[in-house]
Amino acid sequence: MIQQLKIFCGLIGCCLSASSVQAQAKQNVPPVVHSVIGTKTDVNNGEMTLTLVDKKQAFNWSDKKTLDKNINSPKSVNITHDGKKFYVNSLEGCATVVYDMATGKRLKVITYQFDDSYSSLWSPVSSFFPFTHYTKNLNTFAGKPVESCFSHNGRYLWIPFYRRTYDINAQDPSALAVIDTQNDTIIKLMETGPLPKMIACSPDNHYIAVTHWGNNTVGLIDCSSDNPADWKYTDKLVIDKELILNFSLTTPVNRDSDSGYCLRGTVFTPDSNYLLIGCMSGANGIAVIDMKTHKYLGRITGMMANLRHMLIHDGWLYLSINNSGNVQRIKLDTILDVARKMNGKNAVLNGWQTCKVAAGARTIVISPSGRYIFAACNVDSKLCIVDTRTMKMIGSAPVDSYPVGLDISRDGKTIIVTSQGRGENKGGNAVNIFHIDYRNPEPAPAEIIPLYRQDADSTQATSFFLDAGLYLKG
């Protein structure tokens, strides 16, 4: 009973088993709520207004205007750099749904039902993630998409799968798909470690980091080439200790909590020199990796426990703290000063600024100016807004129950929230699309600045582009 309550309270954040959902029904679970198109939320006496302009949902099949049966526990959303499309990862639907931003029309459903017909798309198997429990038909499965990131200036979208569907306890390698956003087709498949959740691209477009919730490891993929055939794993990094997984092949266990540090938030520093990984459970803190040496340096602690998501903007590192419902930040230079001195030893860092939002703070995004943080708060079913000038919460907008993922357009005018499903009509199963009006307009989308990296074996500098609109001119 206690463990089930912890699951509900948002200690972690992923798909729940049917038995867990049934047990939750006996707890004091907040009522399921659903937002209404046209609802306007005034924030801080007109400083901004959020209007719910559209939604996609799979809980009310009589509402044909908003119904999309492909929305089955949507986990995350990504808006393209040009603002023309957005991608919703339908976790339990084993699909990514593509929509037109201007019209809201569904453009395509990219399904993840793999068999031998996809054999030509698989990258050669690396030595980093061996199968230890399954031996037959390894590449015949359905994939449950979790998070995503863009690379190559938005050309490619990388999507890891929570597990291969035959692997009931997520203890053998999972996989990821790479989508070409020009035609929305799968162009490459690669194995991952057990239970990948977060994925990130370095600002110099050299590496993809795949963070494995399941066993305290991180995979590094060299994606620097413009040719997808050249992309390959170069390293597997271990955060303190790699878990040895040996669960039942027939009886499910709760892998959402029985997973060591539960690695989650993942972000590269703007210079691509360090990779920061949030430890959501266990020892807590931020694991620091030196990207020049691919060496794990240790963990930084001192922030609140249950760190879920991280982002960097304008010299600040921001965190969402899931269980207690907070947003914290600290100067990035402070993190970097500590990182340079760690050399394998953990460090406690004080001086975090904290803003209380609402219970179950999951994904956070920031407006183009850096003035506002938006937080999807799962337990309280709210989209909370934080003024970064004061680190105070200035308002919130209602969303469908169990919001978990969100993204904001590069012009700051559109924010999209995904609300997870929990059992039969026991959760959101919805995507909420808001238009934002600001009293003081956000700056126009900044120019994307190319970075240049000198290849070790070449005298020619190669141009790469920044990812996700987080590191922009101005």
Report what the structure shows.
The chain has a domain at 1-83 and 364-443. Strand 17 and strand 18 form a beta hairpin. Helix content is 5%, strand content 42%. It has helices at residues 2-9, 18-24, 332-342; strands at 40-43, 48-57, 74-79, 85-90, 95-100, 106-111, 113-114, 141-145, 149-151, 156-164, 175-180, 185-191, 196-201, 207-212, 217-222, 232-238, 263-268, 274-279, 285-290, 295-301, 307-313, 316-321, 326-331, 347-348, 353-356, 361-366, 372-377, 382-387, 392-398, 403-408, 414-419, 430-438, 450-454, 461-465. The model is unreliable at 1-27 and 447-474 (pLDDT under 50). The strands form 8 sheets. Strands 7, 8, 9, 10, 11 and 12 form a 6-stranded antiparallel sheet that branches. It is globular. The protein is mostly beta strands.
Mean pLDDT equals 88
Q: Kindly report how far apart the N and C termini lie.
A: 51 Å
Share in helix? under 10%
Beta-strand level of the residues, as a percent range? 35-45%
How many helices?
Answer: 3
